[in-house]
Design a protein that fits this description.
Pfam families: Sm_multidrug_ex. Keywords: Membrane, Transmembrane, Transmembrane helix. InterPro entries: Sm_multidrug_ex. By secondary structure, the chain is mainly α. It has one domain. The protein contains 5 helices and no strands. The radius of gyration is 17 Å and the shape is elongated.
């Protein structure tokens, strides 16, 4: 956007790229993860991530279900987002179709927040 690209094209491209993360992550977790678990360092890291996910936002996601997953994915902070939403889907065995839509809605809202903040900051700097 700072380079003069179409702001709407940037939004759509970033949104769609994020949506693609969900099926890719679930494929990885379903098919490839079990092979990596043979390596000590990976297994130790995976267990650490799983524990953090379950103790962090896990209870809220389980309690609020679909809406909790949307909120978790929507918050534009480190440790949230579609990667964490995909891991939560896998760990808590959330129905894939519902989880896909929850992640997609959360991604859209997060993208809109970041995109709007960027536009506002560009206008205040006089770049747009």
């Amino acid at each position: 956007m700072l380079k003069g690209l179409n702001v709407y094209l940037v939004f759509v491209t970033c949104f769609l790229a994020n949506v693609l993360v969900f099926p890719l992550m679930l494929f990885f977790l379903d098919k490839i993860n079990k092979y990596f678990l043979r390596w000590f360092f990976y297994k130790k890291s995976a267990i650490y991530v799983a524990r953090r996910a379950k103790t962090g936002s896990g209870e809220k996601i389980k309690k609020f279900g679909f809406w909790g997953l949307i909120l978790f994915v929507m918050i534009p902070l480190p440790g949230t987002g579609v990667y964490a939403g995909s891991i939560a889907t896998y760990l808590f065995k959330i129905e894939r179709k519902k989880a896909f839509w929850a992640n997609t809605i959360g991604i859209f809202l997060s993208s809109a927040i970041v995109w709007s903040a960027t536009l506002i900051s560009m206008k205040s700097m006089g770049s747009a």
